[in-house]
Amino acid sequence: MHSTGVDRRGTRERRRDTLERLEAERDVWVSTAHPERGPHQVPLWFRWDGRAVWMCTGAASVTARNLRTEPRVRLALPDTFDVVLLQGEAECFPGERVPPDAAEGFAAKFGWDPRAEEGSFVYVCVVPKTVRAWRGEPELRGRVIMRDGTWL
């Protein structure tokens, strides 16, 4: 691996930049797995509420089925140079049981309210336990910026 000419950010700057991206970005890659069927990865819209990532998917989707069996999940923002990876456990909420502020925040961000759809949807909440962030090779060391649910 070679240097990209990027200055190395400290933990504080990485945290600030990560929080800004979580607030501004629209899409996140969601990686789940089933013990018998293996890994599954899809992009979903998401909303960051300052504590957790909220997504929505069809109740019968592979993602929802996997999370019911194995709630551990990895999320990745869609940039291969300015990397942000989050790990945690997902909790699924049917539309009628989702906290109103989460559903309303999601609808406000995207102009789409899954609760108004005919199909059955689940909201997926992930409170990160681990967050890694790095920009190129100079930042590989020190890339963990949250451990055990606590920002470093």
Automatic annotation (TrEMBL):
InterPro entries in UniProt: F420H2_bilvrd_red/Heme_oxyg, Pyridox_Oxase_N, Split_barrel_FMN-bd
Coiled-coil zones: none
Tree of life domain: Bacteria
Annotated Pyridoxamine 5'-phosphate oxidase N-terminal domain residues: 20-134
Keywords per UniProt: Oxidoreductase
Protein name: Pyridoxamine 5'-phosphate oxidase family protein
